[in-house]
Design brief:
homodimer; alpha/beta; Rossmann fold; 6-stranded mixed beta sheet; 17 helices; 13 strands; 41% helix; globular
Chain lengths: 535, 535
Amino acid sequence: MAEYHGFSSNNATASLRELALNPFSLTEPNALNSRRFASYCCRMNDFELLYATERVNDDTLSALQDLADESRVIEQFKGMKRGEVVNRIKGYESEERMALHTAVRDLGDAPLHPEASAQARAELQKLQDFLDALTAAEIVNEAGESFTDMVMVGIGGSDLGPRALYLALAAFRIQNRRVHFISNVDPDDAAAVLRGLDLSRTLVNVVSKSGSTLETLTNEELVRASFKAAGLDPGRHFIAVTGKGSPMDNPARYLRSFYMFDYIGGRYSVTSMVGAVMLGFALGFEQLSEILAGAHAVDQAAEEPDIRRNIPLLMALLGIWNHNFLGFDTLAVLPYSQALIRFTAHLQQCDMESNGKSIDRSGQPLAWQSGPVVWGEPGTNGQHAFYQLLHQGTTIVPVEFIGFRQSQYGEDLEIQGTTSQEKLLANLLAQSLAMAAGRGNSNPNRRFAGNRPNCILLADRLTPYTMGALMAVYETKIVMQGFIWNINSFDQEGVQLGKVLANEIIDHLAARRRDKNYQGRDDDLSWALLRMTDK
Amino acid sequence: MAEYHGFSSNNATASLRELALNPFSLTEPNALNSRRFASYCCRMNDFELLYATERVNDDTLSALQDLADESRVIEQFKGMKRGEVVNRIKGYESEERMALHTAVRDLGDAPLHPEASAQARAELQKLQDFLDALTAAEIVNEAGESFTDMVMVGIGGSDLGPRALYLALAAFRIQNRRVHFISNVDPDDAAAVLRGLDLSRTLVNVVSKSGSTLETLTNEELVRASFKAAGLDPGRHFIAVTGKGSPMDNPARYLRSFYMFDYIGGRYSVTSMVGAVMLGFALGFEQLSEILAGAHAVDQAAEEPDIRRNIPLLMALLGIWNHNFLGFDTLAVLPYSQALIRFTAHLQQCDMESNGKSIDRSGQPLAWQSGPVVWGEPGTNGQHAFYQLLHQGTTIVPVEFIGFRQSQYGEDLEIQGTTSQEKLLANLLAQSLAMAAGRGNSNPNRRFAGNRPNCILLADRLTPYTMGALMAVYETKIVMQGFIWNINSFDQEGVQLGKVLANEIIDHLAARRRDKNYQGRDDDLSWALLRMTDK
């Protein structure tokens, strides 16, 4: 693939800078009319993106299309899926890896990367056999009983995405199966989870791609100690998900081992064995397959080059418009679905770890902003919390709303003439309109300036299929932004320095515990070190 | 109290603007030495604030002290506690209320606002009697059994703060007592919580100050319907916490009614009956009293005018330095404690709803930035998620770390020579230092620019007393920032427009459900309205 030189050298960025001097105003009378709504609605697979409430007009969209074309984002996306080495910094030591999270759900007859898809199929077959054996009570505990609970031990990508999907799909759980999560090295995390669990009927799913994650190995030992204290054999309860050949790849210690490969980044690993083992246990293999199918459908549809027919591409470009040209530093993702309570936490990793970068793919310092701060909580809860700032604060926050026409459980009541689901949807649309249009008032405290850009991503119902698709929409949006910004969205060198320093510090804390007269290193940090242990 | 004219007319702001042109650099060799650490440590009650890693020197601190003095922030804070009408916009219709959340924990012999404290004592006495009757099994269910579970139905201030404290203090729960939360109008929220609950042994605590919150009343009806369907009498299970005289103040419908008063804002209401009833049920009255005592101790200590001896005041000023003078739009609050998993969500409301304002207390548009976007997740989890952007992103995010020397459960293991708690603390300190000092490298991808300002708020252990104190530190920091910015931190007019529009929209959704040919209003919104119901 020919080299792409990056964001600021595009002709389109000059046009966009010009357009940003006078962006479309949403507060003019009649600016938000049905024609605009109908025209600024992008349909793809099971989703609609309503973006009439963004500060764009046809000129903006045309320039954004140029930006997509000039940066050859679709070509780069297809290259990633085919296995080009996208995880690299040219001219410097870097990971030099492919990014093939799309391959693990590309399970049809003609996969784009046959080898990776074959590896995924093999692991899925192993998983299906394992799940069948659990259901048939061929794999049981010491007392011959079936397993009811799973503790997932992992952190970062081995925690956030899987946990977000588990919570999102709790309505689809197999009866009497529950999953619990331990992630933090804070010992209270494990202590709180292990209290009240019947360990004898619990599987422990230890997930670490590198097989050397400090938090995960520490928590695994804590949990193993609990099993031993309860007279249980960890070898009958512990499962491993790890990179083939990692220090954790030691089948003798585990009931089963499932593999991931170096072409799957942690934050893109939900549909690999990292998420699949737990989701398969909780939801069953069929529902897991639905998640993969939903994600794959988006991976395919996202090859569409017309930005008005490609939701993740359009979201990527609208995000760039708001961030790089209108100058807004953060992005709020606000799902009108309580089930998506931890989805934004997953996005914080997926987006900010991917695109929180300062150099381009040749190692040059960026002359433009890369990824924004991503945050959010479900509506309507957020309306009673931080929306005050969204409507009337001095900082403008672009918003991506997410909504579903139907509830998951279908348990609803008509109260005062409307159902809860109708109240939820009315609030979703109302917030979008209020932020965009604003409203005047003679009392300055009741004045809404409007022109707060936002969009609504809408689907029928949050099912395993839709959830897989939604996750893939965001994964795709994020890598496309990275391609356009010309950064490497697949490494995370920024987490290394903290690890190095923590290793330098930790021995001093332990030394202090053993010897109360230990005064720390004879250097600048001794005072700060002592604060960690002494009042 | 004499009038304060506001932020930009202070002499100190001119000095601070000048100082901000060349702020103290944390990346110079030896910049972070033990003398600086020892000097830039503020002690107050059970906390230490380590702020050597902020971009300040003695000149900056001196100018910040001037800002505090000129804005008479301590005088304003004392006035608030004495009952001055701080919730107002001069010259315009506004709430015209006192803000007396401090009075509900001012329970000694000489309270600053005797009437409010007397009302608080009366409610606490009612609560203690009720809790004693539950414990003595004088109040029981239809079958004569004691209550084991409580469902708290509330949203915003009636949910976030109480929920954050419940989760933070789960280690201190009374055995066999659990609390569950329903907040969102999304019907799936109630459906998921009610599944698997034994309603017969469950109390329902309905909390709405106004007694007219849409979400809460809707969810109350949903839950009441479940009780009736189970053949249970809601009158034996439902408790109300509401404003005296509100539409919900109807003792005939409830087993007990507890009151709050108009001088308590929702986001400052955790220590009023809003949080107290649930926390008393879960933790017992004694632990609840500890929470109140911890908060009160901070309320008193925060009268100290020397910014280097007053943690919430110093945090308020460092926040203003980072936000208004160094120009950083957001603030990450990162607790190294899994128990504080929802504390940042509480702060999002407390801070952003209080200080996300665009006019001053005379109704004039602000010429300066008010409150920042507040977000965060616990460490070490965040290290494996969004810290990449904090270390190497193009947006600089000031950080407030929170840490505790000891764990809550005390269940820990030495693994590879160190305990989990030591690993946690080593990581906390390491992150603070890495962000501040940075580090060079010949590989540009392994370069850390440093000068990311941050501080560490440190205490011995997260107990009910410390939790009450921590919450009050932030409440106080937030109101002090509001006093300095000359804004009203106690109203939330910005949430009104969304409510108005939702009411306009909702009937159309219901009409559409009843009549499939209904085409919405004959106006601009009909197309968008139909999208909410039809694919």
